Amino acid sequence: MFGLAAGWIATNMKRITARSSASQDARAGLPISKKARYQKPHLTFEQQVKHLRQKGMIIEDADWAIARLRQIGYYRLSAYWHPYKERESSLGAGAEALRSGTRFEHIYSLYEYDRALRRLVLEGVELIEVSLRVDVAYLLGQRDCFAYLLPRHLGPGFSRLNADGISDHARWLDGYQAKLHRPKEDFTHHLIDKCGEPLPIWAAVELWEFNQLHFFLGGLKHEDKVFISRKYGVDSPKMFLSWIKAIKGVRNHAAHHGRIWNRNMTAQPILPAVGVFPELDFITKDLSKIRQARACCPLLLMVCLIRVIDPMSAWPGKLRSLLRDFPGETGMSIEKMGFPFDWPDEAR
Fold first, then answer.
1. Residue ranges per structural domain of the chain
2. What is the tens place of the pLDDT at every residue in 150-170?
3. Which has the least CB within 10 A, 31, 98, 127, 168?
4. Residues 269/248, Cβ–Cβ less than 8 Å
5. What is the pLDDT of residue 320?
């Protein structure tokens, strides 16, 4: 078995290298775009403050505002004053102004709040991701320590060749091998030195990124997906995988310092019937589906899973506390996240 796995690794490493080289050649040959270049001029930090004042933003302490612009950047902060924008025809076609009373310190408060929210998301995702790794490693490791390499232990669709002659399993293994042999990964080198290659699943799973973990979960046999889903109280594997996809989406925004507070999420999960997970009922009952697309949805999916993983976890309480501390002086509210304004006090 070890020989077969080692042979598979050698063959696929050649394919990965060939793909990488071809990809680099393709990038090198890309034509320069003939589209019109960006026309707006570079502004100094002092000019940025002047420009914001012209838009109608109240900036009482220019030096403090310049320090924040130096720290965070105009473009990143612009996402937090976007909700205050108003179009005024008197300023000309396409011109924008800010709502009367918009203050720079309120924009910074929203940014700092969102930053705290991102940190909390990553804390919660760690609990979920680590638990799922254990689920996969323990379940498949009982059958074969190299089960993740062997199609017979996985769902038939995962190994089915697509039109390009490549299976999803092979694509997943490409990503895993690229991660495994990435230079300057001391932890990986330690595992290989200790365990040899291929790594047993309980070691290999520690190298999988959340995207890889989610993709692999979808490639399990149906009965294995049912087993893992039911551990978390979800009867439908399809629903459970849609939850993990939604959590992966908000996790990716948090990990890459993206805005979460009032963002519409791309991945919208399948929701259970009313009463199955009471935390989700107000989202399920929203016929407009707006709440399903907002941050409240993946955040509460995380609450549901974390309560199974660790019933004593402080994370759900931290979320409620953070929502309760929303900076209301900004004129905004947690309703932009999809939560009812009184949710922190009503939630149990």
1. 45-102, 114-346
2. 999 999 999 999 888 899 999
3. 31
4. no
5. 96
Residue 167: strand pairing partners: 161
CB atoms within 10 A of CB 234: 24
Q: Is the pLDDT of residue 6 over 70?
A: no
- d(C-alpha 258, C-alpha 319), whole Å: 18
Structure tokens at 97: 């102004």
Produce one character per residue of 73-108: b if its CB has 16 or more CB atoms within 10 Å, e if not. Answer: ebeebebbbebbeeeeeeeeeeeebbeeebbbbbbb
Point out the least confidently predicted range of 24-28, 96-100, 210-214, 306-310.
24-28
The pLDDT of residue 36 is 61
Provide the 3-class DSSP secondary structure of residue 87.
strand
pLDDT tens-digit readout, 34-58: 566 767 889 999 999 999 999 999 9
Cα–Cα distance for residue pair 126/213, rounded to 1 Å: 13
Stretch (H or E) spanning 86: strand 85-87
Integer angstrom CA distances of residue 22 from 4, 32, 276: 27, 19, 50
Residue 348: its pLDDT value, please?
A: 53
Instruction: Return the exposure string of 273-286: e unless at least 16 CB atoms fall within 10 Å of the residue's CB, then b.
Output: eeeebebbbbbbeb
Place of tokens 């320069």: 32
Q: Return the axis-axis angle of helices 210-218 and 104-141, rounded to nearest 10°.
A: 50
What is the C-alpha separation between 198 and 253, in angstroms, rounded?
32
